[in-house]
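Lecture 7 notes: from sequence to structure.

We start with a single chain of 308 residues. Read the sequence below before looking at the structure.
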Amino acid sequence: MRKCALVFSTGLIFWLVSEGLFYGLPRSTDSAMAYAITGAIYCYSAWLFLIVVSHFNIKSLPALFLAGGFFGWMVEGVLITTLYGIPDTPFPFSIPVTGLSWHALLSVMIGLYATRLALRNLKATFRLAAFIGVFWGLWASSWRVADPTIQVDAELFFSYSVTLIFLFITAHLLWQKTARPPLTFNKWEIRAAISITSLWFLFVTVPQRPMAVLVLPPLLALIYFALRKNKVQEEPGNILPELAEKTPVSRYLSFMIVPLIASGIYENTAAIPNLEYLFIGIIVSTGCIGSWAFVASLIKLHKSGTSE
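Now the structure, written as tokens:
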């Protein structure tokens, strides 16, 4: 039961950042069914992510980022197929965008890791909340210009952002309770995860995008061999219990400044020209940072393994 709650809370955190924050604004295509489908995708991917974190004794930032890359490519390269290119993001630019640039960098490293660290200190919590508010406000404003079909007024955006932040706080409160005891997955759970994912990849993903068989396995191999070295050099255990340090509920409420900041920026940037360049700049910059972090993490883990 605890493991299911941890998977759910992790999946909810990832969904809120990877979907809610990424799309920035409520869409006319949003529906309960769409939320249920994407929620299931993120919970399943979170299960795989947690297995990787547990199995490979992930404690360091480079290893955690690679686990985030694995999570991102499970979402984009197995359960959906944007890894192999879409009109707005052709291959090979689709390799880092959005698997590394958003899922690994923002969902895992900021939405989970940085948030858990910030919650240890009230000032750090406010700083992170302010950063998220500013980023979200600018990102949502640039979306509005990049996609003129989106017509969302400031009041609706405020309601949307309050709802998402409330869910974000709730997810972290549940995560704190369920991640503190050491987490392990037995061999049958690992085999089930590999089997289900492999079957989906072979019989659903590959028929839709045949190039997947040439793209995803080498990317996953890079992660596997680096994390295998990490597993050998690390003591048993992982970073999750450390991140689940008990935090007063009142400190979580600091994140309620996010919708205030984000909606204030959103309301006051409607007349600013050329915001579409900000949209492109954020995509390019996060893609570059994510790519650099992936390569640097691979090098770091391989060097650490060699020095041992």
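The chain has a mean pLDDT of 91. Keep this in mind for problem set 3.
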